[in-house]
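Researcher: I'm preparing a figure for a lab meeting and need a structural model of a single chain. I don't have an experimental structure, so a prediction will have to do for now. The sequence is pasted below. Please return the structure as tokens so I can convert it later.
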Amino acid sequence: MLEIKGDYLEGGGQIIRTALALSLITQKPFTIVDIRKGRKEPGLKEQHLQTVRAAAGLCNAKVEGDRLYSAELSFIPRKITNTNLEINISTAGSTALVLQSLLIACTHHNLNIHIKGGGTFNLKAPSLIYIKKVLLPLLEKMDYHVSIEVVKNGFFPKGGAEIKVRTRKTNLRPLQTTECGELKSISCFSFASDFLKKRQVAERQSQTAQKSLENFNLKTCNRYVPSICPGSGMLLTAEFDDTILGFDALGEIGKTAEQVGHEAALGLLKQINSGACMDEFMTDQILPYLALAKGTSAIKIPELTKHAETNIWLIKQFLNADFSLKNNMIYVSSRE
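Model: Understood. Here is the structure written out token by token.
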């Protein structure tokens, strides 16, 4: 059984999510110790537990330590047999982070996932619209097709989202994204709950983003959505010939719609000006897929973050893959 240090480098929930996914694929059991050690609230949080239980539900895995604030988790996988998965999240925890693990695990399976509860816009997590508009197009380039239907959005602190996901099994192709090509379009997806319609929050977010990106013409989609509590968020994407970059921003108490729009605009501009073909948040998310693809992938990144470095360290424990970094290019070769 693999023993994984849960406090290595970045030492966060990503270690749990990636370990679960790769364990399901390789059928290698593992134990994680010192989970999220050093965090304000160490151990497993509710959203980590939901991911563990969802992964276990796919294959009737044997699990020990799956309780709130547990510092140690053991997971012994079996073959995936359940292709219709129901997940209930009782908090406003991130639906995107739960999917992060499951989408990796299910590359070789046709799967239906139904998530009730949780949030679609969360602090310290990609928004679900980021997963749909940035991650999924990149996965399609690797011949992995996933559909996500957002039945209902969820915001902090009550959550209440409803998501339907379908995966189509594939043999992942390597990804070669070393040049962006020409910039084709910039899109703005501005969301706010129906509670905020009178205050025109969605429009104010997108209008500020357009002013902050005055040299670009944005394709704007403003949407008001039903939810059980007020909330807002937005995503900006830059679509190039050969890649797509994204940056999202979250509405919070005490933060104006204008601040949300400005934050997203500055964030996207930083990604564009980096000259990289992956935004700073995508690198660590795409790495497991690159390691699973047969052949050699190459991507141009802005920098090697601690999240990415942690994921490389973890992937090597499960997969026979080589990683090399040269001049902001990551090369990933599978030797399976």
